Amino acid sequence: MPRMRFPLRNRSPAVAGVVLVVSLVFVPACSSSHKPTTASTSTSTSPTTSNSTSTSSTTSAPTVATGSITCSGTGTVTFDPPLQKGGTSPETATITIAASTCTTSGSNVSKVTGATTTLTLHGPSNACSALGTSNPASGPPTWTARWIPSSIANSMVTFSGHAIETNSAGDVGFVFPNSGGSASVTGSFAGSDKGAGSSASTYTDMTEHGVLSTCRSSGLPQLTGKGTVTLS
Known about the structure:
Layout: E1 9-10, E2 18-26, E3 37-45, E4 68-83, E5 91-105, E6 114-123, E7 135-136, E8 142-148, E9 155-159, E10 161-166, E11 171-176, E12 183-187, E13 199-207, H1 208-218, E14 220-231
Parallel strand pairs: 1-10
Antiparallel strand pairs: 2-3, 4-5, 4-14, 5-6, 6-8, 7-10, 8-9, 9-12, 10-11, 11-13, 13-14
């Protein structure tokens, strides 16, 4: 995640034939002049054939959903390594939104019961000061959205950058794209303009002061809050 600074803006065989030979020896009890008579009985079993049936299943390709969608749920930002006061190690921040409520509009898919979207950002250091300003990314952040049910094709969402902002309650959040930035979508829910109107955000349940205080005192491995994704 690029360096950022506060203050913030509000915003899944057949068996072989078997021959059985049975020998029976008859010995008369009263006469020793009779020679033993041997009776031979052979029983042959015909080879049995094992019938095998093969079942083939045809898996249809996922449906590319049209129109637009808005989903909301839990947002999580995980820092690796954790942010800390004076940190100098390269930083990787993973933002995940696990959505449980989704609404479509103008789409060939009427019901979406959930989604998981994931984005990874990279920065030069894990210092607390890395939490800060609007940032056009050096490499465009790309979200991968996986829908429930899985019969809906995934969406790949690319943003020009991101911003760190506060909402009306003063809570810190990651907002995509950055101010004046752009978005595009391939796959499902690209709308009529290839997803140019798409956006995403995850706001934590901590204020600016709370985030910085925690970071500087004990380090900050993760932030949680509410996440929203709109693709259109």
